[in-house]
Write a structure and sequence with these properties.
Shape: globular
Distance between the termini: 48 Å
Number of strands: 0
Strand content: under 5%
Largest sheet: none
Radius of gyration: 22 Å
Number of helices: 11
Number of domains: 1
Length: 326
């Protein structure tokens, strides 16, 4: 599909929207079942008022699972960096002057600069409020949708799996969770959930392999200037095929659970490093080259520092827990 697409990002975005909407509709339908609705009051109470003492003592072995939940619930990890690439190919703001990565069969090559640039004049600043408004709503849709689907998944697990003592694990993760749709549509719903789960995994893989290929190109162009002799699209296809081969091998090495946990830990570390780099880029380096109205404000710096510090503290606590120091 990537090879046949005219603009690769459009394919990724369209596929992600389709899977997200299908999942959202399915979860809403399943959550409207009477067996689920009657559990909402106790679910909300447990969500905002923790039950003390805890049903069981804290197990350090759960640290990685907790870290995974925090990483994915916060749209963290390297996905924070991926978003920048997609915004660029959407043509938002000054990115509308940059070329996009196109498919090798039906797409026409576009000129993609090896590095960013600062406009010679400030005429584009007249649109900065509109750009920021778009970014606010674009980010809010992603975060809001993620929170909503996460809460509905937790509600369904609490209402349908918890009373029966079912705990999804290992290869049974999607099989057990398929009961979410089964309560409304029977065996058809069970199959539909498995299809949606497969589409969700494909969607995640497609978005990841696309963004990671772009990151590798930036690293090549930044650290090895001679690599710029080869066009961006050629490097993109090379890394796309390489990562496809790597995925085909790693998926056979272990069960999905351990691989998800490992990717979450790596992504969490990436979030800490990326946040520090983003503070330096936005509040130290770029302000020297941007007009005052285009510079990030102190409020942005404050919240970015809070996020960075929070992730850093969690990372330290996690590693101390794993090392059995805490």
């Amino acid at each position: 599909a990537i090879l046949l697409s005219k603009v690769i990002y459009r394919l990724v975005e369209g596929f992600m929207w389709g899977v997200a909407l299908l999942t959202l509709v399915g979860l809403l339908w399943a959550s409207a079942h009477p067996d689920v609705l009657k559990m909402i009051p106790s679910f909300l109470k447990g969500l905002f008022i923790p039950e003390l003492p805890m049903p069981r003592a804290w197990d350090p072995a759960d640290a990685t699972k907790l870290l995974t939940a925090i990483t994915f619930a916060g749209l963290g990890g390297f996905w924070t960096l991926f978003y920048s690439y997609w915004i660029r190919d959407k043509g938002i703001g000054m990115a509308h002057t940059m070329g996009r990565i196109t498919g090798p069969i039906t797409g026409k090559p576009e000129v993609i600069p090896a590095s960013g640039s600062v406009p010679a004049e400030d005429g584009g600043l007249a649109h900065i409020a509109r750009w920021r408004r778009f970014l606010f709503w674009d980010v809010s849709i992603g975060i809001g949708g993620n929170i909503l689907t996460t809460l509905m998944t937790c509600l369904l697990a609490y209402a349908l799996l918890f009373p029966k003592g079912l705990l999804p694990d290992h290869y049974e993760l999607a099989v057990v969770q398929s009961r979410f749709f089964e309560v409304s549509w029977g065996w058809v719903g069970r199959i539909l959930f498995l299809v949606v789960a497969a589409a969700f995994l494909s969607d995640t893989w497609l978005a990841t392999v696309d963004a990671v290929s772009r990151i590798h190109i930036d690293c090549l162009y930044g650290f090895f200037p001679r690599s710029r002799a080869i066009p961006v699209r050629s490097w993109y296809l090379f890394f796309l095929l390489l990562l496809t081969v790597v995925t085909s091998i790693t998926v056979l090495l272990d069960e999905p659970g351990p691989l998800i946990l490992l990717s979450a830990v790596i992504g969490f570390i990436g979030t800490v490093l990326f946040s520090v780099a983003l503070i330096f880029l936005n509040h130290v380096y770029l302000p020297r080259h941007l007009p005052a109205s285009a510079r990030p404000g102190r409020v942005n710096l404050f919240f970015l520092c809070v996020s960075c510090l929070s992730y850093a503290i969690l990372a330290v606590v996690y590693f101390l827990t794993i090392a059995k120091i805490l």
